[in-house]
């Protein structure tokens, strides 16, 4: 337990160290700290618990979204949504199949994807398809190490999504030394 207290103290001294708190939660076998944030608490309380957000976006209806990504290698991005009065509406991990399933082909733009999921871990351009692709790491159904790809046409509209295994976690593709 003393080990966990040291990790929490370290995370509190280095604002924004969500990753250290997630590790502490996993090692302790307890609920991650972001899951203990109830609706209705203030922005200041969230910042005290999770640190300064790495990304901030405006969503429709006056909602502000703070994102705490664990990229480039992490598979989680914690989103904290606030109402117009600065109170928490809900807290969730947006790197999930359920969240990705909400993407609307032909309607969403690059801005919509960025506001919901944050900055991608990787971008690429496929000239033959004329598509820009944004990639995010996630754990599909809490089990499979996957990549979610969002394909955009030149006008910035989402045209296709694709899920593929994450080669970073493929034991057959790792180099053994």
TrEMBL record:
This is Lipoprotein SmpA/OmlA domain-containing protein. It comes from Pandoraea thiooxydans.
